[in-house]
Amino acid sequence: MNKNICRGIYALICEHLDDILTLRNTRILKDDLSFVSKGDLLCDKLVKNFIKENLPNSHIVSEEIKESWNIPTNAEYIVTVDPIDGTENFVSGLKEWGIGISIYHNDRHFQSMIALPEFNICLVTGDKLERISGSRLCGLPSYMKPEHFEQLDRDYEYRQLGCCMLNMYNVIKGCFTKFHHLTGCYSWDILPGMNLAIEHGLNVEIEGKKYSGCFLQPGIKYKFVVKDSII
Fold first, then answer.
1. Is the pLDDT at 1 greater than 60, yes or no?
2. Percentage helix, strand, coil, to 5, in the chain?
3. For 161-201, what is each residue's pLDDT tens digit?
4. Which sites bind Mg(2+) (predicted)?
5. Do 11 and 87 have their domain in common?
6. N or C terminus of the chain with fewer C-beta within 10 Å?
7. 19 labelled ligand-binding
8. Does residue 127 form part of some domain?
């Protein structure tokens, strides 16, 4: 298996970044009242074409293609793609959006990537990362109900950035001491960050149980926390 798949995808996104950014003002309201843009669809097309050319015998799970959530039992490789995470930020002209890729081979994690193109950040399985220590910040999801705020620990300061990939990168880097998602999000939002977090020695829990890198079924919302191992 080509270990440069994620690097190749990031290089492709950077090559087409100007084209992607010109599509910010092309938002379309989906049935769930969230936005998708032509930028999302272009990223999705670029990534899928690259995977098909460079990773044969793979099944691609994409946020934007619901039919892809049905995974064939004979799939050797499963690639989960979030073409633009933080679409609301993207279409609003903010830089806080990202791309997430997670590759599984015969049900075992092989490689993941968090890319934040407008910040020129790309973190891939195997990368070294110098972590920041001593942060008191905790990342939160952008959508929360009043009762969720009542559950928060008063020992932290909180940040809501509207992009799961950026939140995941921040907790892996140490900018956040933890990222707590009380409302839940989908596998394509979290598989890249969770596997990279485990690699860098962080504690990851889903629905109150330790997570060790297994594949997560698409179309299901998962509540989770990723935190520094010293907490």
1. no
2. 30, 30, 40
3. 999 999 999 999 999 999 999 999 999 999 999 999 999 99
4. 63, 82, 84-85
5. yes
6. C
7. no
8. no
